[in-house]
Amino acid sequence: MTIQQFLVYLSLCAICVLTKPTDKKDRVHHDPQLSDKVHDDAQNFEYDHDAFLGADEAKTFDQLTPEESKERLGMIVDKIDTDKDGFVTEGELKAWIKKAQKKYVYDNVERQWQEFDMNQDGLISWDEYRNVTYGTYLDDPDPDDGFNYKQMMMRDERRFKMADKDGDLIATKEEFTAFLHPEEYDYMKDIVVQETMEDIDKNRDGVIDLEEYIGDMYSHDGDADEPEWVKTEREQFVEFRDKNRDGKMDKEETKDWILPSDYDHAEAEARHLVYESDQNKDGKLTKEEIVDKYDLFVGSQATDFGEALVRHDEF
Question: What pLDDT is attached to residue 136?
Fold first, then answer.
């Protein structure tokens, strides 16, 4: 297996990220991630750029002059204003942000589709996926990197079968999307929960206790004192995660944790953008109000440079 193929496997996991001892691992799934940047408008607007444009498009805007940014932003506003009444509402902005999120998912699927559809028939069979991803490494009983590829393959096969609605072990593009991004599909959410619990439940008793929950995010690694965020997570487990107060999270409690249904990030971001840009406070935005805040929505080469001067971290 090449490094690229192994990274593909890692991208399929519920969220399996190796972290430094004091880093926090976030297993919570929302809609496709708005941004991996910190949302801190006091420092910069990078989170908002990614959320509004999508991360790839935001990088393109970073290279533009302020004049070019404003011109392109004006054209985007025309697309967001779906009822063509000259105003952008919070609902229209939310729909646009969700569209940018979905584009990330489908672009990711397109990038991988050509690699796995070996016979170019517009479908991906389990055999095609298995052969490309694992190949001859399955025959090696003692791989140098120490990974158990057979166990990985079994886990992938289980997820593939779950995504494959008609059970023919051949995935359409929609089924392959469900395989790669199971958190996006209601019928796949149980497999996301199952994989997460398998990762964290070290004693295999079918539930996640407090130490397993903390151990998934943090390793003492010789540290005498826990960081404050670890203490906060302990409190979160007791007060909110363990809803029935029995000292552990069962399947439903784990699902509530990693697949929260009571918070919509796109809605929150849309509300934030309207609040920051609505000069006359009428609850909706004109093109002029949005373009006037172009640095919040899209940024540019010039604004990035200005932010660098403020932060003093580029020199």
Answer: 75
Structure-block tokens of residue 150 = 């057979």
Helices 126-133 + 90-116 axis angle, to 10 = 80
Please count the CA atoms within 13 angstroms of the CA of 14 that sit on its side-chain side. 24
Helix residue ranges per DSSP H, the chain: 3-12, 46-53, 55-61, 66-80, 90-116, 126-133, 149-163, 173-180, 189-200, 210-217, 228-236, 251-258, 265-277, 287-292, 294-297, 301-311
Distances, alpha carbon 214 to alpha carbons 210, 231, 262, in Å: 6, 9, 23
Per residue, the 3-state secondary structure of 21-41, as one string, reads CCCCCCCCCCCCCCCCCCCCC
Cβ proximity of 49 and 61 under 8 Å: yes
Predicted TM-score (pTM) of the model is 0.69
Q: pLDDT under 50 in the chain at which residues?
A: 1-23, 30, 302-315
Amino acid at 132: V
How far is Cα 59 from Cα 64, in angstroms, rounded to an integer? Answer: 10
CA atoms within 13 A on the CB side of 160: 19
Which residues, at least 6 apart from 7, have a Cβ–Cβ distance to it below 8 Å?
none
Closest listed residue to residue 23, CA positions, set 235, 221, 311:
221
